[in-house]
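Weekly puzzle thread! Below is a chain. First person to post its structure in token form gets bragging rights.
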Amino acid sequence: MLMTPLARTLHAHCFHSVIPQALQFGTGLIVDLSPSSDLWRNVTTNHSFADEIVRQAEAIDAVIVIGRYAEQRLIYQDKANFSDSKNRTVHMGIDLGVAALTPVFAPIEGTVHSIANHQGDGDYGPTIILRHQLEGMTFFTLYGHLHQAAHTMLNVGDMISEGEQFTAIGTTAENGGWAPHLHLQIIENMGSKTNDYIGVVDPAELVFYRNNCPNPNLILKRNDLD
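Winning reply:
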């Protein structure tokens, strides 16, 4: 797939780590949650896919569990947040599975575009969107499944310096019911959206969303995700 101008610019830029470097670039379990994954062979009534991910991560001493970009998943359909959108199955961010309260840093200078708390079952939970400028281009980064108490002093319009901690990873109790992780997503054009942006899309709309939401690994730069 050809890179958009924004994707080419992000690819060439060196960003600050989004979580502590030892985690972002440490030994990782890259999870395959697609319908054909071997992971599902080990899922039973008493051993969920989340349990299986923990087992696999422990087996390789992984310090981070990574969920893939543009991956089709069927794990959302029993969540209330997806009750009226069963065709939404393709994940448009990268998930960084680390412990709750892990700090989250700005990869590049930006301003706080929005702060929200989407508390539906399966939703983002506490969410921040930053607005950035890079080589004359505007883009946004979305951070979902956050710890609400970590950014209570933050306001829309605040300037966040590159490398500044501005929030932290949330707990399962507050993050929409998921295991603690950060959903990182890049958005070129927010359209009519303000404090939210779709993170799981209908495959029929994938061409549009792949162009508007390029691979977050353009920021993370893990070699094993290319």
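Puzzle host: Confirmed. Bonus trivia for everyone else. The longest helix spans residues 49-59.
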